């Protein structure tokens, strides 16, 4: 019976880690595509790279560019780590390498805890992120820069919250609201994806632990 249970746990562990490997590779591909595809949000990315001497617009641009750079490396790092861990877990399960299964369990648990920490950090700093994004839009609107024109065309919006603009159509969303709503929706989708990956990782941890306990018995 213990051999059957061990085989089942290792089979589940192998499938879960193959799924983690594939999901991580997809994540790496998407991050690299967004980072290096010049056609992705081309106008807005070009405007963000233009150094502005206008304050506080220049400060907001610097904060956003720094945030994008940090996000790129964090997501890429998690993707690479997930791919390596998934590969190690699949190999360990297929060849029944108990030492590697134990190492895989420890590393996967650490990675899951780091992902939880990142998720909590994003939730805690959500209001600060909203203020930064909306501050950038307001500054671009007040300075009449190309940034505002790009945002207005991209999000089909007009004006900013609390400031009537006769050029705006009735019922047209403000740019401060439209940009933040899109970003907030993206963060929500990313949160659900992260939650799904965390569930997959914790099930994989339980499978690793079960396989180790069966072997010990």
Shape: elongated
**Which structural class do the helices and strands define?**
mainly alpha
Q: What's the helix count?
A: 7
- Secondary-structure element sequence? HHHHHHH
Number of strands: 0
What fraction, in percent, of the residue positions are helical? Answer: over 70%
What Rg do the Cα atoms give? 23 Å
Task: Give average pLDDT, whole number.
Answer: 85
Give the low-confidence spans: none
The end-to-end distance, rounded to whole angstroms, is: 12 Å
Name the beta content range: under 5%
Note the main attributes of this structure.
transmembrane, membrane, Tetraspanin, 217 residues, elongated, 7 helices, mainly alpha, Tetraspanin/Peripherin
Task: Write up what this structure looks like.
The protein has helices at about 1-35, 40-50, 55-95, 100-125, 125-145, 145-155, 175-215. By secondary structure, it is mostly helical. The longest helix is centred in the C-terminal third of the chain and has 42 residues, at about 175-215. The termini are close together.
Helices and strands in order, then pairings?
Blueprint lengths: L1 H35 L5 H8 L7 H38 L3 H27 L1 H18 L2 H10 L19 H42 L1
Helix pairs in contact: 1-3, 1-7, 2-6, 3-4, 3-5, 4-7, 5-7
Brief summary of the model shown:
The protein is built from seven helices and no strands.
